[in-house]
Amino acid sequence: MARNTNYEVAHDLQKLAVIAVFFNPVRYSSRYNLYRRFEEHMSQSGVFLFTVECVFESAPLFGLQQQTYEVTQSNNPHHLQLVAPSILWMKENLINISVKHLPAHIEYIAWIDTDIEFDHLNWPHLVIEELQRYPIVQLFEMANFLGPKGKNEILRRDYSFVYSIKHNKPIDSRQYKEWYPHPGYAWAMRRTEFNSIGGLFEFAVLGSGDLHLAYALLNRIRETFPKNLHEDYQRLAIAWSERVAELAQEGHNVGYVPINIWHHWHGSKNDRGYVERWSILERHQFSPSKDLERNTETGVIGLVSRRNIGKLQMSVRMIALERDIVIYFQSRKEDSESNVVKPIKSIEPKPGPVNPKPTAAGSGSHFRINKQTLPKFSSHSNRPTYVVIPSSGYSHINDPESCWVDCTCCERHDHHHDDDCPCCTHYGGGHGWEDHHEKPECFDEFEHEQGCHDHNEEDEFYDAYSGDCDQGNTPGGNVTDDYGDGDHQGDTNDDGDGPGSFY
């Protein structure tokens, strides 16, 4: 297909800023290497690159390395270094924060995944030209998903979501095998319009922010999350999407850049768990307004700290939620070079109906019944150690003494998940509850029946988690202030079963 990659006039690139987000809880070397490649590519493109890097203070609690900044320097004005109290998918939150730190003269902002590369260096001029026509722009026409061998191994090609809108291609999960409109990789907006919608939806703590944005353009965000997700998440997402849809005129006021991109390999697509990760938020009934708090000084969000929770039961659930998020990040295996997908020679778009009637709200069309099971620990001894580390600044790890956080799930009852209890972790070596605990029972309303657990006195267990409340954190619902009432990266399983496989 012939593409016009020329631009009418040379634009002032000083008005454009590219935001790169870097967070790496598992310390994948591929993320570091891809960022360095991307940094050089942006330099060659002549654009202003603003990099925000976030480290996670809770990493040692889950057996991960102590976090240090890998790609940014504190004395570089083009870098922003932040600390998050909990391990979450931080992309959209960090982008929103970064926009507030950009110089006042910046009129256009782009956020681009650091694993992609444009096939022409004139792309910044094309971006500005398109942003002068439309307030929201996706920055490519077609994406080449590469294998471990690089540009000599193209595993699949996908057209962009906005290209699909503009060319009346099907945007329907039932037809993704024939036509997949990619929702991610690279977007840009006019700064004023970005602010008018309240920034990006930042409560997708396991990813899918790009998917939410793309479908919000068409006022179809209800198709992007499962029906069993907490109603609070759904309500906030819908309220935000209504502003996006109004700005985008339900797809009529958006554009794309007529240029192709390369997506560089960082692990098999089969390890991304784009569908399965939703089960974590469903299982824990994640509620953004109840389960998140925002640091009022930095804007960084995190799970509600122990002292602000006020309930042992809630504290246990927060630890279990973060534990499952850590397991998800580990399961992505982004340093793996193993690939089971055969490279393709070419791909021709197949005809399909013009954007079909949207699926009914809550249909769960993106979420198949036959889901893969998220990786779980199968024995006591191979679980990560949860140890509270003395530190300052965040209430859930600033206790004066390190203390073990142990599950007391009774091994004698018929509990259906003795080896995957949500109460944290078991002692190694096969120790049972009777070795450590005696007294009152707790009640976990999400996973257990009353009487399954025996814990020490609540105040002792609670003290193990809590500390002085971080004055910079605002508990609970205040995270939703910007919303009023209110991976991402694409690929597919071999069988192409369902859109969630791509996100």
Automatic annotation (TrEMBL):
Annotated region (Disordered), positions in chain: 344-366, 463-503
InterPro entries: Nucleotide-diphossugar_trans (IPR029044)
Stated name of the protein: Uncharacterized protein
